[in-house]
Structure formats: C-alpha cells, structure tokens
C-alpha cells in the first residue's frame, strides 16, 4: 500500500512525516530547509510509493487565515503542478505545535532537544497533522 506524507510548512524550515506502508501510523520523517522541499519530495517519491500529500493548513482560533496561509496555498499550487498524480489535501493544523511540544515533553525530551534548531518540533508537528488525517479516514 502506498504511503501518505505530511508537510508542516514553515518560512525557513519544513517538517515532514510519513505513514507506515499500511497507513495506520504517522511517523516524524525529517526537517528540511523549505527552499529544498520540492527537490526533496521528488527524490523521496523515486524511492517510496506515495499516494497523497497532506499539507498543514494554518488558521487562527477563530478560523481566520494567518500570515502563513497564503504561503501554504502557493505551496499547494506548486505541489499540484509538480506532482499532478498525487492527491493533495489541506488539514487544519491549529494546536499542532503545542501538541508536538507536549508530546515531546511526555516522551522525556530534554529542553535542549525541544529547542534544537534541527527542527524536532517541526517534524513532530507534521506527524500530528498526518495522524489527524489518518484518524479522519
């Protein structure tokens, strides 16, 4: 069964998560520079069969758009153009960063690891977005 990949888009860094082959569990994958996202995905799709891309859709608590929302829509268009065979879905990402931080604390991550610039929080946030998508299915 093909996998599903999730993207937690950021201005500088982007967190990625991927399902297991049975699409039951979401696992943090990697945090990359946002500028390299399309090239990274192209290479990843050569190695792994992926049927869908889940993109975190940022909104404020009241449902209004954030400053990141137009960037997410622009990335969605780029993904659709680059990978027309992939289904691309937007998933509400409200609270994912907070939930990611709480889960890292619960797993015993040290404060240094949570603040690390490598983006542990970004890829865990992507995994939460992806798990939300899987739970909805």
UniProtKB/TrEMBL annotation:
Signal peptide: none annotated. Its main location: cytoplasm. This is Putative pre-16S rRNA nuclease. One of its GO terms (cellular component) is cytosol. It comes from the Bacteria. It comes from Algoriphagus zhangzhouensis. GO terms for biological process: rRNA 5'-end processing. Residues 2-100 form the YqgF/RNase H-like domain. NCBIfam families: RNAse_H_YqgF. Its EC number is 3.1.-.-. Keywords: Cytoplasm, Hydrolase, Nuclease, Ribosome biogenesis. GO terms for molecular function: hydrolase activity, acting on ester bonds; nuclease activity.
């Amino acid at each position: 069964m093909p996998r599903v990949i999730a993207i937690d888009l950021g201005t500088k860094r982007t967190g990625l998560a991927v399902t297991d082959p049975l699409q039951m569990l979401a696992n943090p994958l990697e945090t990359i520079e946002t500028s390299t996202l399309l090239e990274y995905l192209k290479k990843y799709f050569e190695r792994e069969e992926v049927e869908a891309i889940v993109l975190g859709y940022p909104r404020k608590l009241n449902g209004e758009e954030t400053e990141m929302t137009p960037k997410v829509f622009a990335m969605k268009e780029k993904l659709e153009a680059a990978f027309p065979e992939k289904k691309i879905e937007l998933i509400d990402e409200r609270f994912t960063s907070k939930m990611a931080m709480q889960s890292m604390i619960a797993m015993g991550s040290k404060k240094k690891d949570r603040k690390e610039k490598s983006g542990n929080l970004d890829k865990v946030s992507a995994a939460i977005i992806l798990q939300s998508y899987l739970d909805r299915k």
